[in-house]
Structure formats: structure tokens, C-alpha cells
Amino acid sequence: MARLFALCLLLAMLPLTVSADEANVQGFDNLAEEQRYRDLISELRCPKCQNQNIADSNAPISKDMRDAVYLMMQDGASDDAIVSSLVDRFGEFVRYNPEVDRRTFLLWATPAIAVGIGLLVVGGIVIRSRRRGEQGASLTAEEQARVNQLLAGEDRNNRS
Amino acid sequence: MKRLFLFLPVILVIVLGVVLFAGIGKDPNHLDSALIGKPVPAFNLSDLADAERQLDGEVFRGEVSLLNVWGTWCPACRDEHDDLLWLAEDKGVRIIGLNYKDNREDALVWLERLGDPYAVTIYDPRGTLGFDLGVYGAPETYVIDAEGIVRHRHVGVVNEKVWKEDLEPLVTRYREGA
Amino acid sequence: MYPELGQFALILALLLAVLLSVVPLVGSVSGRDNLQAFARPLSAGLFVFVAIAFAILTYAFLIDDFSVAYVANNSNSMLPWYYKFSAVWGGHEGSLLLWILMLAGWTLAVAVFSRRLPSVMIAQVLAVMGMITVGFLLFTILTSNPFDRMLPNVPADGNDLNPLLQDFGLIVHPPMLYMGYVGFSVAFAFAIAALINGKLDAAWARWSRPWTTVAWAFLSLGIALGSWWAYYELGWGGWWFWDPVENASLLPWLSGTALIHSLAVTEKRGVFKSWTVLLAIVTFSLSLLGTFLVRSGVLTSVHAFASDPERGTFLLALLAITIVSSLILYAVRAPVVHVRARYGSMSREIFLLLNNVLLVAATLLVLIGTLYPLVLDYLDMGRLSIGEPFFNLTFSPLAVATGLLMGAGVFSRWKKTDGGWLGRKLLWPLAVSLLATTAVMVIYGGFKPWAFVGCFAAVWVSVATLWDLWDKSASRKGRLHGLKRQSRSYYGMVLGHLGMAITMAGATVVSNYGIERDVRMSPGDTAMVGDYQVEFIEIGDRRGRNFTAQYGTFEVTLDGEAVSVLYPEKRQYLVQTSVMTEAGIDAGLFRDVFVAVGERIIDDAWAIRLQYKPLVRWLWLGSIFMAAGGFLAIADRRYRVRDKVTEKRAANAPAPRGDAAEALS
User: Out of A89, A91, A92, whose CB is closest to B131?
Assistant: First the structure.
């Protein structure tokens, strides 16, 4: 009995709103729907947390948003419609996946641009290297004479 | 020529430095309302004082007002309450309350005990209007113009400083613009 | 009284650091050996005083001295002693002191382990490290003094360490991470020294390489530890969130990986020197950027320390001075002379260059993705969030491409590889990889395009690496002899690449075939997650040293056979009263079963999070392989063989005989 009381006391201290109105953990008809729900709530950001999606956040507003997503799914809304409706209310801050528009074009294109430039540079290096090879790796007569001289000098040093 | 290319990294870094410097001191969690320039979302909720009386968007028409989102469960709302009374009584600002996710009895007792700065209070127990407005934590205060268009949102307590710097200029502007 | 001694020690350290920055540098530029010789003893002195300061702070924690503000904010008398010890770096000021301790430690290490380096070089390297230390010590002493006191109102007890940090993870993750971050300062110092004295050659690359590799190995471990810690501690089963602070640690790692490969080319062939130097500067700059992002409050993150505009500005100034001056030095002094080297289009040099392209692209991607919201906000173009979906979508192709390149590149030869030969060589590995990947798809139940591509890349790297090992170890004296003949450096590479493959495999499989469910359960209920059945037995409570907890008992079975009993719990810490979830995890090499208790819904119904995570441990196992590879590589003979000619000469003739001696050395 004392343990039960202690348990109640403990629960009362927990910062949770426990009320009959609390929505249940969503029940889905099939695994695909459940997965779609999980994907959606992973993509949406909690507006007041320190960088968390609404799936992982315990904030009351996250819970409201999860419930809203569930209800909209039950109503048959598409993923885009669900996200748009939340963006309309909370701003684009709540999307973790930024839309591709004029502002974010540079962002989405970064990997392609970076790799593209890189490949151009590497290509340039390879071509230049080939061209250098074609121009003759052989030495001029003057350079050959210098080489001979150096080699001869080296021999003398080694013998001494 | 190649030497010039080598200066590119420095230039990029300096640009980045300017952006980072501008970011210092700003609150990264500050969010502007998504509804700025748009009308207050449609709603049909009861008056806190009178459960029979239904309120809708008409309540904002005719005068520039502040919409204050509050609840008895919110300690910061208690902190700003006296400032709201000052605004309503001394400054003659029309404040409409939005009692968010609260219990009617508790809210009425609260207002009775502490004073009621609100011209009228909308009772939103499920938080539906709050959700549609994009409220993510009380207290929040919106500036609504005489046509019912949302013009500004302030997240956090309203005090004299906030009034002077943020809200008053807007209220004056939209009063004159009407 | 003694905390003031700690402050005093820091000031002394600062003085020594200033001397270290100036004296040897002047000596190196003016050719005065006696001034250069100050470098080593000054480094030792610097380390001693920083260590004293750190020891004093630790002591303050261990004896519960709450008159020191930092101790009062981060500790509590009920905290177990090992958490009091790690609480030293649990907050901003203390972790900064840890940074400085590492910096001084690395400086000392460079001073001790570089007898063979010319005095001029060593003087400059240590001077640069001294300059960095000056910056950080100034920052600490002026804005973030850990020894500030709260006299005369000494609190009766402290605010306690954040419960999330009361964990083994805090004891290991930050030190490893900082060893990596700070270690890259050595590569940076070598680069700056080379720019100053103009001796940018293969020898420079050879000296730089072991230091860079060790730093990289530590950073790999540090990041993996952070990921592992987040996984079991935060209760959501996630292992990477693309959070700005996490990205801040990934940036120097990506750039550092490019650097160790670029150094390989510069050492072996003496080419790409300018590029390597730039990478060394950039890598350390990214370390510094990370430090700034965590402590300035500019970006929102679960990891961020409490921010302060004054600190942010100081740190930004420190960053700006360091990075801008080093890049200007680079622009002015980097060599632009074209080396007359030739490389075939499929030579090892080109493969490594392509590796750099991909890694740098990845670095840019993460950097831009992390800072973009800041830039847009600066331009008043709105408040965007860029998170997991974006990064997963854009980073994965780069990772896969790197894997594909790695597999092919392993067979490439320096200077020239015959394209036809390479193609033929790759056929068998290709076939084996396709087969193995298909098998994996079948085992895990279902073809998914991203899973296929990711797994293929991982298998491809492993097969190619092991195939190459098999090829190289062929010997007339038998396989074992052939294996023993390979250098540690080579085995380091093998381990490193295998580690990468293991991590990629883990990431791909757990992301694509993992199952996550949130189910409502009351005692007596069962639920399925994948093939595992989880039964909720009961809920009870217990009390820990400084917390109370409710724990659930869950029985996990597979096809009727008992697998384990798990006890996930929700803890409430007594001082900070925050609620924390501890997950119940049945760990295995090939899968984890993860159960966490969520919200109480009503009465005795709870929201339970169930997860099946195949190959999740491979993520961190791969990092262990990578780090082991790094440590093995620096134990290579060529770093340990003494320069016998120089030694003999030093022992015998006092006066070297002009040209002949020069020619021989």
C-alpha cells in the first residue's frame, strides 16, 4: 500500500499532463501507414526545442503536431498537404527537408557543383600531364651534357 | 594568375566571418509568425465568461488589438499579468485574451483574483485556435489590426520595454493607417 | 586559497606560451640556434603549468569545493566520484581547460618525439603551437575562468551535473574528441612552418603524416563514442542527428581523411604540395569553427554550451586571426611552380586526388548545410531548418561514390596503371560483391535500392581490400611469409578501409532494415518488432544514488525462445528534477533489440518504443577498425628506423667534408 502511494506521489511529480483527453499512441491499420507516419514525424521539427524532430520530442506542442499529422493521415491527406498545413501555421522552420526553391537552389546543388568542379580540375591535371608527356620527356642536349658531368663527378667522389 | 586563385579561400573565410559575427547575440530560436500579413484563422469558440456566447473573427474588427495567449498553468503568464493590466487600463490598449489549453473554472478564478485586462477572452480548451495560429508556447502576444490581419508576434512576457520597443510602434502605425 | 593558485598557473602558462610563440620563431628566422633551443623546454614548462591548473580544478571537484562557481554549477555532493572527475569537462570553462591541456600535451609530444627534425623546423612548429595556446589561454583567462569564486555566499550544495551527462560516455567521449581536434593543430603547425621557411617537400610530408594520422584516429574514436553514447542514452535509438555540433565534429574528420590521403601522395611523389598545405590549414580551421559553433550560441543545438555574446565575439576574433593570417600566408607563400611529374589517368595519384574531390565535396556539403540557415537569416530570407532528410539524401551518394572509388583505387599503381589491366582485375571482385550483396538483401528480407547500393559499396571495398592483400602476400616462401612482409603502414590501410566498409554496412542496414515502433502497452501486453516478440511484464520502482526510477520489465523472445529480459527505466534525478529515459538494450554483434519507456498514457498504459536494429554495432566497430588502422600505420618501420648515416656522422667526424658529406646524407 505504501509502495502504491509512493508510486502515485512519484507520478504526480513527473512533469506530464495526464488527462482523459490525452490521445492514445496512434493505432494504425497496417505497417506501411505506421512507417509513413514515422517518416513524416521525423521530418518535422519541434518549434520550441533545441533541435529535435517531433518524433523524439516530449514537448506539448510536438504532441499536438503529431496528433495533427495522424488526424490528417486518417482524413486521407497527402504527405505534401500535411507538411504544408503545418508550415502554414508554424513557418518553414518546422521542415527539416527544405523545399527546393530559388533560395535553396545553391544548397541542394552543392554536392553536384563541388564534385563537378573537382572533376574538371582532375581532368585538367590529367590532360596537362599527358600533354607534357607528349612534348617529350627526353632531355635537351645541354641538359644531357649536364647530367653526364654530374654523374662523372659523383663517380669521382665515390672512389675517393 | 594562379597566385590570385590562392587568395580565394581567404576571401571566402572573411565573408563567412561576417555572417557568423552577425549571428552572435541573436536568438536562434526566435521565430516569426507564419501568419504575418494573413488574417487570424477562422474559429468558433465560446467566450470564457459566458459559455453560451460564441465568438469568431468579428471580435477583432474595428480596432487594433493585442491577442494574448495565456493559461493558468503558465508561470510566465502570471509574471506579465500586471503589465497587461497596466497596458489595458493606463494605456487604453484593447487586449483580447486567448485562454489556451486550460480549465474554464480555474481561468475565471484566476482573472477574478488577479484582475481582468481583457476586453473579451476566448476559451480554447483543446488549443485548436492556438494550433492554427502557430502558438508553440505561452505566453505569446499578437498584434492584430482593425481588419483582423496578424501583424506581429511576440513570444515571451510583455513588459514595459517590450511595449515601448516592439509593440507600441506597430499599434500606433496600424491605428493611423486604418 | 588554492583555486587562485590554479588561476596563477594559467597565467604562468600564458607567459610561457607567449615566450614559446616568439623566441624560437625569432631564432629560426635569424638562424640563431640558441634561441631555437628554447622551444623544447618552454613546451615542457607550458605543459607542466597547464597540468597543474587542471589538477587543481579536478581537486576542487573531488573535494566538493562549492566556493568555486564552476564546481557549484556542475557538481553535487551526491554525485559519484567518477562523475565528479568527468564533470571537470562537463561545462564550458572546464572543457576549455581540457582543450588547453590537450594542446599543451600535443605540443610536448611534438617536442619530445621529433629529435630527428631539423632545429629550425621544430622551433617553428612549436612556436605556432604556442601561438594557438596563447589564443586559447587568453580566451580562458579573460572570459571563461574556471576558477572564479562565489565568495562570500558559498552555496551549501551544487546544482548537480546534467543527468544526461552522468554517464560513462562523458568520461570518454570529450577527451577522445578533443585529442582529435587538437591533434590537427600539429598538422596545421607543420604546414605553417613549411610556409614560413619555404621547405615544402616530401620530407615535410613524411614528418607531418604520423601526427595527422594519430589525430585522425582519435577523432574517429571520439565521433563513434559520441554516436554510441547518444544511442543508448537518449532513449530514441538514434545514432546520428546531423545536429550542428555533430556536424562540427564531422567536418574536420572528412577534411582530415582527405588530408591523410593527400599527405600520402605528397610523401610518395612530392606532388600536390600546395593542396596538402591548404587542407592542413582548412582541417584545423574546421576544428576551430566547431569550437566556435558549440560555444557561441549562433546555432541551436542540443549539445551547445550556454552561450554568451562576449565569449562568442572573442572566440570569433580568435578564429578570424588564426585562419585569416594562415590563409594569407598560404596565398603569399605557397609554391605555384609546376612540378614536372607525369601521372597516368588511372594512376594512384589520380585515384587519391578523386578521393580528395569526393571528401572535400562532402565537407562542403556538411558545412554549407549547417551554416545555410545562418546565411539566409543574415540576408533576411527567412528561417529555414536543414536536418536529417536533407543530409541523408545528399550525403549518401557521396559516401557510396567514395566507397566505389576506394575499392577500385586499392589496386591502382603509382604513376601509371594500365586501364585494361585494372578493369580485368576488378571483374572478380565485382562478381563476388554483387553476389554477396544479393545475399544480404535476401537475408534481411527485401530489395531496397538504397540498401543495395550502400551494401554493395561496403562489400566492394572489403572484397577489393582483401583481394589486394591476397595478391600482395603471394610469395615463393609461402603465404605467411608474404603476409609478414607487408609493412604496418599497409596493414594500417587495410584496417582503415575495412573499418570504413564495416561502418558503411552498419549504417546502410540499420537505416533500411531497422524497425521502429511506438506501441501502447499495459502490463501483460505483447507486441512484435520484426521477428521479436516483446512482452511487458510489470512496472516497478527503485532508487539509485541520486535518482529515483520507475523501471519496466520486458521479456524478449524470438520464435518462442527466450532472448533476454530488459529493464528500461525513466529516472528522475533528485537535484535537477529532470526526467531521463534509460533504454533497455539487448546488444548483439548482428542486431540490437531496443526497448524504451515513453509517456504514461493513462492508468497503467504506457507508450513503449520498440526497435529492432540490425548491424547497428557495426557503425562503431568500423570506427574501432579505422582507429586501429591509424595507430598501426604510425608504428611503421620508416618512422622508427634511425637515420643511421646521420648518427654515424655525428659520432665520428666533427668537421664534415664539404660536398661529399652533403651528397651522402
Answer: A89
Find where cell 618525439 sits.
C113
Identify which of C397, C407, C424, C266 has the alpha carbon closest to the alpha carbon of residue C335: C266
- Please report, for chain A, the start and end positions of each structural domain, with discontinuous segments joined by +: 26-94, 105-159
Residue C65: all three cell numbers together: 569545493
Topology of domain A26-94, CATH:
Helicase, Ruva Protein; domain 3 (1.10.8)
Contact C300 B17 (CB under 8 A): no
- pLDDT by residue (tens digit) across B57-66? 899 998 899 9
Subunit contact C388:A20, Cβ cutoff 8 A = no
Q: Is B136 near chain A, with CB under 8 Å?
A: yes
| Orientation of helix C449-472 relative to helix C388-409, angle to 10° | 30
| CA dist., res. A93 & res. A146, Å (int) | 70
Domains of chain B: 29-177 (3.40.30.10)
Nearest CA in chain B to A47: B136
d(C-alpha C227, C-alpha C223), whole Å? 6
Collect all residues of chain B within an 8 Å Cβ-Cβ radius of residue A93: 31
Chains touching chain C through at least 3 C-beta pairs below 8 angstroms are: A, B
- CB contact at 8 A, C536 and A2: no
Neighbours of B (≥3 Cβ pairs closer than 8 A)? A, C
Q: Would you tell me which residues 87-126 of chain A have a C-beta closer than 8 angstroms to some C-beta of chain C?
A: 91-98, 103-104, 106-108, 110-111, 114-115, 118-119, 121-122, 125-126
Which candidate, B37, B163, B32, places its Cα nearest to that of B93? B163
**B108: Cα separation from own chain's centroid:** 22
Closest Cα in chain C, distance from residue A86 (Å): 14
Q: What is the pLDDT of residues C460-509, one digit of tens each?
A: 999 999 999 998 888 888 888 888 888 899 999 999 999 999 999 999 99
Is the ipTM above a cut-off of 0.90?
A: no
3-class DSSP assignment, residue C323: helix
Whether B7 has its CB under 8 Å from any CB of chain C: the answer is yes
Q: How many CB pairs under 8 A join A and B?
A: 34
Give contacts of A92 with chain B, Cβ < 8 Å.
34
Q: What is the dihedral of CA B108, B113, B117, B120, to 10 degrees?
A: 20
Burial, B178: exposed, middle or buried (Cβ in 10 Å; 0-12, 13-18, 19+)? exposed
Mean pLDDT (10-residue bins), chain B, 178 residues? 85 93 82 90 91 90 92 92 91 92 93 92 92 90 92 91 90 82
